[in-house]
Design goal:
By secondary structure, the chain is mainly beta. It is built from no helices and 11 strands. It is globular.
């Protein structure tokens, strides 16, 4: 069973930073594209960031310049560095690999 486990969420003030991590349990990590998604209260789940097996990244417009996705294949881990956080970033954040999802980690940004 392939498992994805997120960590790093929490409560921060506006303008603060958090670094989310997602570790994949199998050695197929390095050949898979990875994504971060989030779901805010009352809203549908949205895609946030993407990184392919070669390290090419893309982001939803609302987080460009503030969030950075990266991966460490030796550690089977993908990261989401979130800077200049805003209240509208408040959501449960999920990492994704294909049809596999992590359990989610809560990010709350106070205004």
């Amino acid at each position: 069973q392939v498992q994805l486990v997120e960590s790093g969420g929490g409560l921060v003030q506006t303008g603060g930073s958090l670094r989310l991590s997602c570790t994949v349990s199998r050695r197929i990590f390095s050949i898979n594209a990875m994504g971060w998604y989030r779901q805010a209260p009352g809203k549908q789940r949205e895609w946030v960031a993407f990184i392919d097996s070669g390290g090419i990244t893309s982001y939803v417009t609302s987080v460009k310049g503030r969030f950075t996705i990266s991966r460490n294949n030796g550690e089977n881990t993908v990261y989401l560095q979130m800077n200049s956080l805003k209240p509208e970033d408040t959501a449960v954040y999920y990492c994704n690999m294909g049809s596999r999802w992590g359990q989610g980690t809560q990010v709350t940004v106070s205004s």
